[in-house]
Structures are given as structure tokens and as C-alpha cells.
Amino acid sequence: TNNSRCSTPTETARAHGRTPNGTEDSRKKKTKSWTNSYPKPQPPQNKRRPMTPENIETDIIRCADALEELRKLPDDCINAVVTSPPYNKKGIQDGKTQNSNQIWQKHNIDYATYHDNMPEPEYQQWIITIINELLRVIAPDGSIFFNHKPRRHNNQARLPTEFIHKTDANIYQLIIWNRRNSPNIRKDHLLPNTEHVYWLTKNKPRTHRENMNPAYITEVWDITPQNQTTHPAPFPPQLVENCILLSTMPNDIVLDPFNGIGTTTTTARKLGRRYIGYDIDQNYVEQARKNTEQQ
Questions:
Q1: Using one digit for the tens of pLDDT, what is the confidence trace for 247-281?
Q2: Do 83 and 131 contact (CB within 8 A), yes or no?
Q3: What global pTM score does this model have?
């Protein structure tokens, strides 16, 4: 026999999700709309747009504290940093200097307004903070050339890596600056005639080794130090030129937060780069401006 039968009007309505009187069937599970299932898309927040090398103020030399000025700079705006901070040579010796003979007295590093005499733990933390700020402001493919040297204390050689390894920077390469001479006349250790240039980066840097003088394409640079003038430890221009040519192109931005009498800014201008320099000594700043403008 045929067991099929016609559906009643009520059953037909309910099969289509409605009751006989035309209202929604409460037994049918309602489907949540997309907007109820997921959060609504939020408009992008107005984050501070980082300055670019095109709209940052350059070709300036400012009398100011390095760390304060670095904190004002936006992220990723500098192509290369070439700098050498004070070495804290008095601070690491607990405020003492070696004045036992005329040779040492002639070669003491005495800045005009900075005593270079921090407690060593405080100095190292300051340098760590400086390097991390420099790392923040360089471009993703930028470079920092950070000149420092081994220092002696309690019959030990204290290397700059002691604090550099505590920063966020990557040591891309160690460059040895062979100064060729030293004022040290002590006979209980070898003459310390080298300094270090730490090539620090965020990632793999942009490089232009082909633009360098072939005499300097190894990691040992034989460069005679600059004679002391109004500054006790001026950069030799050749060292700065090597760093700039290796890591930048014309119109790139070069920064030195310890600009002194302006070897970095002067060399940057000579090579067609834009520059930013800071120093806390007004006399050094005036000399740096004069030297740079003469290029």
C-alpha cells in the first residue's frame, strides 16, 4: 500500500521556518550574523608616522646631550653612525690618572667640560643605553661604527665587548684600527697601539666596499692618529671616510652623537652626505661648525 500522505499546511509552513500564522518558528535555530560572530573591523589607529630621511632635519651641529637628542629622533631615520664616545679612562681607574712622567702628562685625555670619570658600572649602563638608541634610529640596513678600545685595570685588559654584548646590537664585524704608535712606555706589557671599531647592525647592512680605497678593504686599517688640537682625541679623517664610503651613498644621513670638533660631520659634507652632530661642549660645537662649513 502507499503510505505517503499530503503534508498539512502547518507542517509545510514549519518546514520553511515559519508558523501557520506567518511568524518565525521559534524551534528553528537562528544563525548569528557575521557581525555578531566576530568583532567589527576597527579603523587603523593614528600612530605617529616615523620621519623619513626626506623630512628629518639634517646638516646641523647642535650643542646638546647625546642621549637626550637621540631620544627625540624617530625610528629608522639614519643611514650610518660613526662615533667614538669618551672611554671613561679615569672612571675605570677610580678617578686616578697616570701622571708619573712627562710622557703620560703630555698624552692625557682631558676634555674641556667633560671629566670622563663616571663610576664604571654607571658608565657601562650609559653606553648600553646609547648603543640601543643608535640601533633604534638607524635604518633596517644601516650601520653603526662604534670606536672604543681595550682599557687596563687591575692588571687586566677590559674589552668593550664587556658592555656591547649587553646591548641589542649585532656585531657584524670587528675592525682593528692600527694606530702604529702608542705613548705607553710601561715595560710590563706590550705597547697597546690598536683600537677597535665595532661595526654594529640590526640586520644585514647595505655595503659599498667597491667605493673604498683598496688599501682599506681588509678588517685591519693602518691609520696614523690625528694630532691633538683643541680636542684631546680627534678622529683621523681617513677612518671616518672609510666608514662612510663603506655604508652610505650620496645624500644619505650620517650621525655622530659625540661629534667633538667635527671630523665626522666635516667628512660627511665633503663626501656629499647629510649630517647630524651633537656635543655637550659649546667650544667644540663652534669649532665643528667652522670646520664643517669650510668643506
A1: 999 999 999 999 999 999 999 999 999 999 999 99
A2: no
A3: 0.76
E strand spans, the chain = 60-63, 78-83, 138-148, 151-153, 156-158, 170-178, 194-201, 220-222, 253-256, 274-279
User: Is residue 179 a contact partner of residue 224, using CB atoms and an 8 Å limit?
Assistant: yes
Type of residue numbered 3? N
Beta bridge partners of 80: 143, 254
Between 131 and 36, whose confidence is greater? 131
Between 263-270 and 282-293, two packed helices, what is the crossing angle to 10 degrees?
Answer: 20
3-state secondary structure 140-204: EEEEEEEEECCEEECCEEECCHHHHCCCCCEEEEEEEEECCCCCCCCCCCCCCCEEEEEEEECCC
Phi/psi for 140 (5° steps) reads: -55, -30
Q: What is the mean pLDDT of residues 212-230?
A: 89
Of 6-20, 79-93, 218-232, 253-267, give the lowest mean pLDDT range: 6-20
Cα gap 250→268, rounded to integer Å: 9
Given this model, what pLDDT does residue 113 score?
55
* Residues 219-227, mean pLDDT to the nearest whole number: 90
Record the cell numbers describing residue 277, joined without a space: 652632530
b/e map 181-198, b = 16+ CB within 10 Å: eeebeeeeeeebeebbbb
Q: Residue 290: what are its φ and ψ, rounded to 5°?
A: -65, -45
CA pair distance 29, 12, nearest whole angstrom: 18
Q: How many CB atoms lie within 10 A of CB 220?
A: 10
